[in-house]
Design a protein that fits this description.
This is NEDD8-activating enzyme E1 catalytic subunit. The chain is α/β, with parallel strands linked by helices. The chain has 14 helices and 13 strands. Bound molecules: zinc ion (ZN). Zinc ion binds near residues 189, 191, 333 and 337.
């Protein structure tokens, strides 16, 4: 009742209540009852990330009437965050993002309680995540998204409606961004959509070495090939401007040779340090759309993204374009599907070549894979004793060395995603 009562006391929430108290074509009488109005104030919502998107999300949720918000972020504030992460001041540099952001919004919006957690999401178990009604992610890490997605899908118990936690995910890169909503087990999950995000290091070495097509290829060439050949300094320090300048000049010369434009100092720094460019206004647009979806899901005031269209893309780098579409759930998704998927491989590959391919395959992106066939462990990177036992398999060919055949099933796991099992049946080409 807190919000409803507060609205009688003060006109602060009158505009928000106007939307919530008006019965429209999409809600029912029960949605606009006093009892229903109180559900927003009582809803517990989790925000993952207190960075560029997270600052916006926390501010918007608090100003949208959410009263009980938790936020997780393990990072501390860096001076380079201050141009867009507006809840932080220069005097906050070095402090925890979650803590500072929570305190700032609490002070600004009366009656809101924000609980910060200065840690990794992996440090909490299902009991922790079970207490929330909605999870909103403002992350720049694919790995963290995959982890929370798998956790929320695993938590769903068909006999308990409360175990289903809608996941709202925002992401930006420069002038581009996306907002998507996942109803775990019911609609396409993050893992179903993983192939939309090609791994960043997926440019084959031969492209870098022979015919670069993009400014990034020239920078990676300078970073990986030219640096190794010329060794201008004993070791590369990515924070040393002299080192970055050396790479920038090498990349620029190569770009000019191939008629490629766009190599700049800041792009060089971004590629080498793997920095995703971030623009305050794109973050604001995407965070705002995430928060409106949260408000609609929490209040039923209007239909949200989800069961039909579930993905909103925003493109701002060539004028403006937005598009909303439905990503289909995949039957062979390792998180929410239940069938093995085909894996096309060359029978003459060694096991090592197969495992290396898992790192760059867009729908896998695994760095430390273990692999099993039938009941036999082919390779496990941990613990050391098993690694030693299975290491000789790495150099064996799939067919002749290991005796694998087309349609054999293999199971792949990775310690980064302990709840995920990737099942494949081999298809030899
Ligand atoms: Zn899925």
């Amino acid at each position: 009742m807190a919000l409803a009562t507060a609205s009688e006391d003060s006109p602060r929430w009158q505009y928000l209540d106007q939307i919530r108290k008006t019965k429209g074509p999409f809600n029912q009488d029960s949605d606009v009852s006093e009892e229903s109005l109180a559900t927003l104030a009582n809803a517990k919502i989790l925000v993952i990330g207190a960075g560029g998107l997270g600052c916006e999300i926390l501010k918007n949720l608090a100003l949208s009437g959410f009263r009980d918000i938790h936020v997780i972020d393990m990072d501390t504030i860096d001076i380079s965050n201050l141009n867009r992460q507006f809840l932080f001041r220069k005097s906050d540099v070095g402090k925890y993002k979650a803590e500072v952001a929570a305190a700032f919004v609490e002070q600004r919006v009366e009656g809101v309680k924000i609980t910060p957690h200065n840690c990794r999401i992996q440090e909490f178990d299902e009991d922790f995540y079970m207490q929330f009604q909605i999870v909103v992610c403002g992350l720049d890490s694919i790995e963290a998204r995959r982890w929370i997605n798998a956790t929320l899908v695993n938590m769903v118990d068909m006999d308990n409606q409360d175990s289903l936690k809608p996941l709202i995910d925002g992401g930006t890169e420069g002038f581009k961004g996306q907002t998507r909503v996942v109803f775990p087990t019911l609609t396409a999950c993050i893992e179903c959509q993983l192939d939309l995000y090609a791994p960043r290091a997926a440019v084959p070495l031969c492209t870098l070495a022979t015919i670069p097509r993009q400014p990034e290829h020239c920078i990676e060439w300078a970073h990986i090939i030219a640096w190794e050949q010329e060794k201008p300094y004993p070791s590369l320090d990515k924070d040393d401007p002299e080192h970055i300048t050396w790479l920038y000049q090498k990349a620029l010369a190569r770009a000019q040779e191939f008629g490629i434009t766009g190599v700049t100092y800041s792009l060089t720094q971004g590629v080498v340090k793997n920095i995703i460019p971030a623009i305050a206004s794109t973050n604001a647009i995407i965070a705002a759309s995430c928060c409106n979806e949260a408000l609609k899901i929490a209040t039923a005031a209007a239909p949200s993204l989800g069961f039909e269209e579930n993905y909103m893309m925003y493109t701002g780098d060539e004028a403006i374009y937005t598009h909303v579409f439905k990503n289909e759930k995949k039957g062979d998704c390792p998180v929410c599907g239940d069938v093995a998927k085909p894996l096309h491989v060359d029978p003459n590959w060694t096991l090592k070549e197969l495992l290396d391919s898992f790192a760059v395959k867009a729908d896998l992106q695994l760095k430390n894979p273990s692999i099993r066939a039938e009941d036999k462990t082919l390779y496990m990177p941990f613990p050391p004793s098993i690694e030693e036992q299975t290491r000789p398999n790495l150099d064996k060919k799939l067919k002749d060395g290991l005796g694998l055949e087309t349609n054999h099933e293999v199971v792949v796991t990775d310690p980064a995603f302990p709840t995920l099992t990737f099942r494949f049946f081999l298809q030899f080409s």
